[in-house]
Records
---
Amino acid sequence: MPEIVSAKTPSAFAFNRPLRWLHWTMAVLIFVAIGLGVVAAYFPSGQQPRQGLLEIHKSIGMTVLVLVAIRLVWRLATGEPAYRQPLGRLTMLASRAGHAALYALMLFMPLSGYLFSGAGGYSLPWFGLFQWPRLVPRDHVLEHWGEVLHDRGAWVIGAVLALHLCAVAWHVFVKRDEVLSRMTGRSAD
């Protein structure tokens, strides 16, 4: 007989509260960082408001890097909740591939941005409170590759995020399954 989960207890079919908090916090931070990066690109280099926008962009990026490390450790320690109705094999494969790509990009984007800024001799701020240590030498070749990788990665993360959002919409509006409720903590019933 299946276990009945009361509304007052955490669902066995949802991610735990810290993982949900990390997911939604990081989602907001990533979309804000992308927006700031896009807007900054329209202003002249080395001048305000571009410089200020990029300082915030970098600070958010490094925050995401720290949070994704915490999230990965927490996720590995706590695992994934069960599904009430198992996903099909192809859907599960696509889900795993999409999430692996997102985690890789959440690491890749801040690291490539750090490489670009660090090797280029640019600031490595964290919201004006401190500068991250410069762990790479000033080097124009490294700076160039950091810039290229960060720029190309921005297009890739944009595409993967768009696919992620389309997949969520498909689960909510077409499949009408529990996938979104696993990250909101609300019952899909």
---
Amino acid sequence: MKGTTFVQIISFANQKGGVGKTTSALNSAAMLGVLDKRVLLLDLDPQANSTSALGISKNAVKYSIYEVFTGKVEDISKAIIKTSFKNLWIIPSNMSLASIEAELTDQGGRVSYLKNILNELRGRDLFDYVIIDCPPSLGMITINALVASNGLIIPTQCEYFALEGLTQLMMSVKQIKSRYNSNLNITGILITMFTPRFKLSQEVLSELEKYYFDIIFEQKISRSVVISESSSFAEPLYYYSKYSKSSLEYMKVAKEIILRIEGII
């Protein structure tokens, strides 16, 4: 399906690690591709797990997001790699990106650097969605992602420490929205690693619903070994185990993203 223009830029962010952020960004992007959306996955995590999970050697790529950030590649399209999966492209990452925080600090307009880079793609009619996998921090890389985005999805595990981190993230989003990017909106909070039979999961979910009931995704992601297996085989869930519970859950998440962003499905 041909899209209109390069419009939707959605960051997956949470400063707390281990909440299923990369898994959610990767599989949401892959599912959107299956649903005939042209998707660019932008790996902004120096660990480069999204890159590896798509079967791309992070040490063998000619150009990564680091080269884009540092201006070593002038045309961003040179860093885009077509994956073997339907309608899915990626700008890969590697450990070189770990040094970019300090480098950005020395540059003027540093919070808008990624926004200016992505502006190169506007009008080219290449993608319907850009999905950004942010690092597990609220550093300069994540701030750049949020300044460039019009949507934010917050993967959140049902544990009490996640509640504290979510409050901090919401405050940061409010500041970024008021100072740098009035177009930034919270697409939703995505509950991950959810085990309904655990009392803790139910208690934390209840607390989240008290404050964020209107932005919590209806579909929750269950804890499942098949998620880890798919990553080890370098395949998104849809391609590794199409009819598994986890795959079906992420398909529903992708449809919910389209509904929340475009109002249609």
---
Amino acid sequence: MHMLLSLNETRVIGCLLEKESTTPDQYPLSLNSLTNACNQKSNREPVLNLAESEVKETLDSLLKERLVSEDTGTRVSKYRNRFCNTEFGSLQLTDQERGIVCVLFLRGTQTPGELRGRTGRLAEFADVREVEAVLQQMVDRGLVVQLPREVGKRESRYAHLFSGEVSVVSQADLAADDKARIRELEHEVMILRAEVERLNRELGR
């Protein structure tokens, strides 16, 4: 896999994948419809406020990469996914993998439990274990990465790798950094206290 997609590109592709499954009667999407989908307040993280010109610029880039196609046979141009599962494309995903990628594109890193709840209209999973099994297959294929589990959390989060490598910082590394900062602050406080005591002595307090 040699994709390096921007946030706007993953948002556009994610919207096309989503609407292809959830509103097939309105698919492919016009520029206006796609812009509205990109800027939805619900089911999006982060929430964006893209102008039509920005979406069109993103589409032009994706058209060059042959990751979307344009239907020009009607009065208004409409756009459809060529990101995966196309006749000539190399990326073939199962319905479950496609649903996971779509939601990761639209909402960022998520746990298996969150993915199961948010892919309901895109794919079927019997339970969280099945989501975890599919995620492991995607990890093996280099499509997603498992992030270190956060302190106090039961599940690890997963991120897609279509925008390049994800910086993985372990909780141990974070804890070590915190301890180092605390030691440095304690040392600075000790120095300040000594300076205050010295000034008090000079002032005869």
